[in-house]
Amino acid sequence: MKKLLSLLLLVALLCSVASCGKPEQPADTSSAESSEEESSVEPFVEDEKIAKIRACFGEAPDRSLKAKNLFRGLKYTYSLAPSDSEYLLTNGETHVAYDRTAFVHFEGSSTTLVTFDLGEGEHKLADICVDCLQKTSYSIRLPSRVRIYVSDDGENYLEIASQLAPSDAGESCKYVFAFAFPGVISARYIRIGIGHSGQADIDEIVAYEYCEDGDIDVANGELVAFEKDPDFYGYKLNTEVTTPVSSGDSDYKKTQNLALLPGASITAQSFDPLTKQYADLNAPKEDLAKLIDGQKAQNAHYRDPAMVTFFRGAGRHVIVDLGNEMAVSGAKGEFLQYTSAGIRVPEFINVSLSTDGKEWITVDDGKTNEYMKDGSELYALDCKFGKSYLARYVRFSFITQYNYESTVEVDCTELEVWGTKDASSAVPASTPEGLIGGSYPDPEKIGVHNLLWSCSGYVKDGYGFTYDNSLAYFAYLDDNGEIKDRFFDSVVIGGMAKLRTPEDCKPAVEDFVKEFNTKDTNLDAINQISGTLLEKFGDGKKITVWINLVCPNSTFYCSDIDGDGKSEDFKDVNDCLKFLKWQVDLHVAAFKEAGYQNIELAGFYWNNESIYKSDYALQCETIKKHNAYLHSIGLRSIWCPYYGAYGQWAWKDVDFDFAMLQPNYMFSPVDAYRLKTTADMAKILGMGIELEIEDYTGSGSINRYHEYLRAGYDFGYINAANALYQGAIPGALVKSREKGGDSPSVYHDTYLFATGKLDDSYNLPVAKDVSHFTDAEASVEAGEVTTLNIGALNGCKLRTLLSPAFGIMRLDFNGTIRFLAPDYVGDITAEYEAFDELGNRKTIHVLIHVTEPKSN
Question: What is the pTM for the complete model shown?
């Protein structure tokens, strides 16, 4: 599960020449492929084939309208069947980083045909886009050529367009083969020919029709439409006084439910945008008023008219506006438990206060201990603050979707805010000491600020932490390799592959202990690095290390570890604990024997990323008793569950010392709301955030990683204890320093994040130069090749407004167009629009005069 949403459109060539870098290909590969493709083209016969192609195009499409994706959700067939879903190319999801489950993989040297049947209904297809991935380190290359065919009967197909891959695509990038036809196509069958040598990965294929009811804003660079409402409740806090307060009021000093005062109001925010599919299953925003009308449910049932439903959307902030600043001393609520219908009382219902609606202070985490209980009941939340806080806005925050297996709904019948109008003795809100939920983990309290998570690999294979490959993780180095500052203060060293599914746990763990304590590698290397930093900075700060555990699994085999002649049974709590204690003791003994002076063994990392539902009680008991043992010998335990993991709410109940929540944004087909949602959920649960990156060369992945860092500033986790997952050593963070283009920003920006130096200007859209793009014109003899240049992309996006109707074209990232003219005499045109994220745009016209061949 470890580890922008790039809404590319039409050609959205997002990888700039700088970010893509020089392609890693065998010498002359691109030119050879191009020559082979070009030389293999059969000459057009103007009075037959060209006439047939012309006949395929109807009226010119109106590309000023929004588009509809005719392929969305459409089933297709292959000529070469890959092992992928028949809807994966049309599921409306795009990705910017490699994901083994998200792309359709075509292997071998051939042309794979993907055929779509649009049915008998009327349509006016104008554009086709084929979204592809290149990642040369995984032997994935862009298709060498993409062709478009049409047919009315599904048997006789005509090729109407063809494009070659750019010759300067970087080692990791996304590319869209974009075809914008001069007229709409009404043919029923559309076939895409994907020419590949080796593995080609296709993300999405779309077909656009421009129409009045279109839902895709092509002009803004989208490739697919996300049918979500980001503002279901129309959230906007009122700042005007709506509840006048005077010391002469008869109830001025009366303790009462302030939410019932005339002038009080209520609104809400959803963590995630609500899809159209689920929006109607939520109570409309007008029904929120039922939560402060004083009318509670009479029955513990979701059909009680007093119930207000919050369905999916990950979670909610429900805000009661008192209309004026008052003294708030407590909060109450009534929630429904009806587990047979998937309705549960949240494990945490945070109560936060604010005077301005911007700065929120959590004053009660609302720990309910109800989530795992079954049955039906009305649960009464009763939070007494112990003092009166000055506040106008009172926010109830809870998760509606802890996991994808059962709970997706929270029902509430009433929210109350208790206190007095008299705020003369109220104090500013502050978070009580020891509160579990409602805030991110404090680095000062847990002794960790920036935690590196990286696998070691096998020393015998040349992997593992060494002084040279790991110094830059713990020391911030300038471009000359000079140490300028400290960087990561803590590290989790993950295990090798065989620890995840060992044939026998005993030798696997024993090998792991030896690997950890090999001279000049892993712990010894980190000890040397820490010694260098202690000497340079003289601050006494040792690097803390955490060791990955092999977590007991009922399917694992473990030979005898205690000499009783029997293998261990991981279905038994005692055997699980015996195995864990055995592991811990081996590592502790080896650490002491090595005599590391400059690092501290802080504890152990629980490798399982979920508390599995199938044996939840057994695992919870095992984890809690295991953590108790660690605490008894002065060590601690940490955990990083994935987004939506079962049991993530229980991390403190089983006595982990702290936990980090994975957004899985880098690796999942989700939009940027995931970062805010994860931040909201982590804060409610009292967890930190795990940042994630593996691909440090592709502009899509780099941009997506920048969003993690920006979200840390926006949502406050920049100042919390956080983790960074970056693959195996040597990993993405350090390796990014050595690359060109935007790659070094991964390293340097992570340092700014780790030291809290990012500011409000970070990762905001910046203007790109579009003035250098120029029109291009050339003359070429029929059947020959010409070269033009419209200007390098340099980080801009490019939309295809009109692609050549005849001939074969290749458009490189540096702006070079290589065009093979057909055996045709006349003018051929193309049109593009270059633009940046701030809306700067320039239209580019290309005109090619195809002339008769000169006589010999």
Answer: 0.85
